[in-house]
Specification:
59% of the residues lie in helices and 0% in strands. It is built from three helices and no strands. The radius of gyration is 14 Å and the shape is globular. The N and C termini lie far apart (47 Å).
Length: 82
């Protein structure tokens, strides 16, 4: 049977917290799922990147829990023009 690492358990718990917090705000749950699905492609050996995203996710969760939050922003790299 497969056991999750401590970091994997933390990420799964963060995901559940995001889903609970986004339930009452329209349009948030699909965005949360997409974001986690996209980041699930990160290699499990890239622990530094995963920990960085985990800490960033904790900060975003606090913002989401704020009653004044109406939408989530995103930060992405602009596509290079070739």
């Amino acid at each position: 049977m497969f056991r999750h690492s401590k970091l994997q358990k933390q990420v799964l718990a963060l995901y559940r917290q995001f889903l609970r917090a986004g339930r009452d705000k329209p349009g948030f749950v699909p965005r949360i799922r997409d974001e986690f699905r996209e980041n699930s492609r990160i290699k499990k050996t890239d622990v530094m990147h995963i920990e960085y995203l985990y800490r960033r996710g904790q900060r975003q969760l606090e913002q989401l829990r704020n009653v004044n939050t109406k939408q989530l922003g995103s930060f992405s790299k602009p596509k290079e023009r070739g």
